[in-house]
Amino acid sequence: MPAFPRLVGLPPLPALLAGALLLGTAACETTRTGSRDRSLPSHDYSGRSAAASAAAALAGSASSRLIMQVGEAGKITYKTSQPTLSMALMRQLGDGTTIDRILVRQAPVDDPKDKPRAPYYLIGMGQKEGNFRAIALPLRGSDDGTYYLTPNADRYVLTGTACPTCFFDFEDGHIMGATCGDGSVGGNCQLKVLPSNQVFVHQ
Predict the structure, then answer these.
(1) What single string gives the DSSP state of each residue in the chain?
(2) Secondary structure of 103-125 in the HEC alphabet?
(3) Does the structure show a pLDDT above 70 at 32?
(4) pLDDT computed for residue 67 by the predictor
(5) How far is 146 from 104, CA to CA, in rounded Å?
(6) What b/e readout covers 31-60, taking b as 16+ CB neighbours within 10 angstroms?
(7) Rounded CA gap, 14 and 6, in Å?
(8) What's phi and psi for 171, nearest 5 deg?
(9) 21: phi then psi, degrees, rounded to nearest 5
(10) Is-annotated flag, keyword Signal (predicted)?
């Protein structure tokens, strides 16, 4: 079995993320691999910078939504409010799950040189009938630091059973599974990977 790094407990995320995950109800994050390589729509952006062209292509994609921007110091600024994201993710799940925490996190990598290319995920965490639930979706980025959720982004849906804390397991910067954090007997974190999404379709 490979030793997977975890999103919780790896620098520079540990204190911030651990606090977010353990605040309130039992918390957890999970997903699997990053988004597949899909081409952007073809448009004529002659005369624009490459960064502006990429951002414009994403903004012009049907139902793509600007989620956040990463500043020079790595500060994340949400361009869609967290309450709006919570409602949209609950609508996507459509099964009575309550999402009460929204995060955007970059996948950890083994080699610091790979960090600029590591994907970001939009993560919603909450509960359904007393069990932990989470949904995560990879974001598409452009060179100007803006990140979009596109309809072709896969959904990574997690359900925890008899496990108060779950963790994402990563390999090569991508989420490959989930682990029950406290090793509870009989506890598990089930991860489902589903194609595409309708989080902001027709919104």
Answers:
(1) -----BSTTSTTSHHHHHHHHHSSS-------S-----PPPP---TTS-HHHHHHHHHHHSTT-EEEEEE-TTS-EEESS-HHHHHHHHHHHH-SSPEEEEEEEEEPP-SSGGGGGGPPEEEEEEEEETTEEEEEEEEPEE-TTSEEEE-TT--EEEEEEES-S-EEEEEETTEEEEEEETT--TT-EEEEEEES---SSTT-
(2) EEEECCCCCHHHHHHCCEEEEEE
(3) no
(4) 98
(5) 13
(6) bbbbbeeeebeeeeeeeeeeeebbbebbee
(7) 10
(8) -145, 130
(9) -75, -35
(10) yes
* Sequence ranges of the domains in the chain: 28-36+61-194
Q: Which residues contact 195 (CB under 8 A, 6 or more apart)?
A: 154, 155
| Weakest-pLDDT range from 3-12, 24-33, 95-104, 183-192 | 24-33
Q: CA angle, 173 as apex, 170 and 178 as ends, to 5°?
A: 20
Asked if the model's pLDDT at residue 20 lies above 50, the reply is no
Residue found by looking up tokens 């099964």 in the block: 95
Quick one: what percent of the chain has pLDDT higher than 90? 39
**pTM of the entire structure?**
0.71
C-alpha count within 13 angstroms, C-beta hemisphere, residue 177 = 10
Closest CA to 76 of 20, 23, 22: 20
Residues 116, 106 contacting (CB under 8 angstroms): no
Q: Look up tokens 């353990």; give the residue.
A: 22
Q: Please give the Cα distance from 139 to 88 (Å, whole number).
A: 15
